Amino acid sequence: PRTGSAQGQTDTIVNGIKMAIDEYPDGLFGHKIAYTDMDDATAAQGQWDAGKEADNAREAVSDKDVMAVIGPYNSGASKVSQPILSEAGLVQISPAATWPGLTKKVPGDDKTGEPEIYRKGALTFCRVCPTDFVQGPLSAVFAKDKGFKTVYVLDDKELYGAGIAGLFKKKCEELGLKVLGHESIVPRQSNYKALLKGIKDQNPDLLYFGGTSQTSGPQIAIDMKGEGLKCPLMVPDGCYEKAFIDAAGADLFKELTCYATIGGLDPSELKGPGAEFVKKYKEKYKKDPEAYAVYGYEAAKVFLEAAKAVGKKDREAIREAVLKTKDFDKGALGKWSFDADGDTSLKVLTISRITDGAFKPEKSISE
Predict the structure, then answer these.
(1) Are 121 and 84 in contact (CB under 8 A)?
(2) Which of 67, 77, 225, 245 is the most buried (most CB within 10 A)?
(3) What does the pLDDT look like over 131-178, one tens digit per residue?
(4) CA–CA dist 260, 234 (Å, integer)
């Protein structure tokens, strides 16, 4: 989505993509490398739109010069574009779509048909970010380690938000944390005061919100303070962006403790090539990269190195080369591989606390 409040996060992903392309000034095997920025959001929606996502995928398929699609940002959008790109055999590398069912069967899911329903032809979808199989459960491990004994869970009803909230809840129950309740909100409602007043009466040690900045994450934080719900708030990577802090107001987090999680490492924690990427990003764009910038860079590097190895414009050969990526160390994330389903072997979660208007890493946990 290049329109709406997710633009700040997707700007930084696009910047990462462009930085990777800049490392190939002579192009590849006699061809110039062109990047086309395709918005899958509408002004009316203020976020990704299924019709736009489908149109973008069809447009990419119809342009024979297109060798790869980098995206989408949202897991729900991926459900729309995956089948179209799979049928055409056009590789798709997501820097940010984390719902596990896009690539693997979720335990207990006997109804959706995931992930097979997205594979209308060849396996074309892969992602360089860890999935919510990492983020949801390890967030619960962190909650247990912090000494929390009771939690209340909210979600936004969307694929990503409800999914990660469910995985968090399930792990909490396995670890012996008492889940006081689990409710779905109506995203973009004017306020949630009545809901949070009721939650306050149950006195949870932690409130978990499965959702994004675009689906009322900031309003939940605002109304927690307004209703005097003083327990910490925990949010997933859909809120791990400056837009979340700005919308809620940085001063609010002086009073409300808020933990935010992201699969992988915060940019400030990257070492070696990752730290070099952050340094170059700051030099080029005069600001810090947001959390998913490095994944935009990594996704582009995987494609570019695969295409370079293939040595010609050939969608099928490039698709095969990307999905066979093993021990990749030419990006910024260290050495990693894709598994048979197109998921990265990197399985780290970083938990940050919002302090002084920024995400400050508090702990990293490996699966």
Answers:
(1) no
(2) 77
(3) 999 999 999 999 999 999 999 999 999 989 999 999 999 999 999 999
(4) 6
